[in-house]
Each structure stands twice: as C-alpha cells, then as structure tokens.
Design brief:
single chain; 89 residues; mainly alpha; 5 helices
Length: 89
C-alpha cells in the first residue's frame, strides 16, 4: 500500500510495505534505490535501531549493500526485524 510514490518509505510501515512489490515488479529500480541511492542503509538502521555509522560498518563486514541485495534482498522488505505473519520471501 502506497500513496503513489514508487519509493515511498511511508509504505514500509512496520506492518505493511511496498518494497517487496517494487523488488518483484521493477527489480532494476529497486536495486538502484536500495544500492545506488543507499536506501538499504536507512532501512537496516531503522530496522535494527542502530546509528547509521554502525549500520554502515555492519554492511561493510557483510560485503556491502550490493552483496546483501544479491544474497538476501528480503532484508530490505520491511522496517522491522520480524515480518508480518504469513510473509513469504
């Protein structure tokens, strides 16, 4: 559910998110947003309630945003650690 903006963070509420839909329907735009525009940093920082500098250090230890997007793209789907009940990656 989103108000219209394709990259709307407001749609990534703790119970609902447009990010998995964007990932499936427009993978190139999703990848640009998460990796190139570095929105993945913000999502992970909010999700884990961690300062951005610590989040960036953790991302670097995991091989960078690109590696995370390749190996486990679902981590960017929601702004909470546990997804909604019934969520299927």
């Amino acid at each position: 559910v989103t108000i219209g903006c394709m990259f709307c963070g407001g749609g990534a509420q703790f119970t609902n998110s447009g990010f998995p839909i964007l990932r499936r329907q427009c993978p190139d735009l999703w990848r640009w947003f998460m990796v190139e525009a570095r929105a993945g940093e913000i999502i992970l920082s909010i999700k884990h309630d961690t300062p951005l500098d610590r989040t960036r250090q953790a991302i670097d230890r995991l091989g960078g945003l690109e590696a995370i997007a390749d190996r486990m793209p679902h981590v960017f789907d929601y702004l909470r650690i546990l997804p909604m009940g019934g969520y299927d990656k």
